[in-house]
Design a protein that fits this description.
With 68 residues, the chain is an alpha+beta fold. 59% of the residues lie in helices and 15% in strands. The chain has a two-stranded antiparallel sheet with strand order 1-2. A hairpin with a 2-residue loop joins strand 1 and strand 2. The longest helix has 22 residues. The radius of gyration is 22 Å and the shape is rod-shaped.
Length: 68
């Protein structure tokens, strides 16, 4: 039985898409952690205070922190 090039290409593209999605899901926690650390650094360097308000982490720069 001969497999067509089109079918082989389709299977390869689907396999790569599944692998990419798996990679994004498994590394999501690391990316969120890095983003949060960068946000804390920027907040501190601009004179703000990193705090939790109503369960959300925000940078308070002296004004009333908005969570919306």
């Amino acid at each position: 039985m001969k497999i067509s090039v089109t079918r082989l290409a389709f299977v390869a593209v689907v396999a790569m898409a599944v692998a990419a999605a798996f990679f994004r899901v498994t590394t999501a926690e690391d990316r969120v952690r890095e983003r949060r650390a960068l946000a804390r650094t920027v907040c501190a360097s601009t004179g703000g205070a990193w705090m939790t308000i109503e369960g959300k982490e925000v940078c308070d720069k002296g004004d009333v922190a908005k969570t919306d």
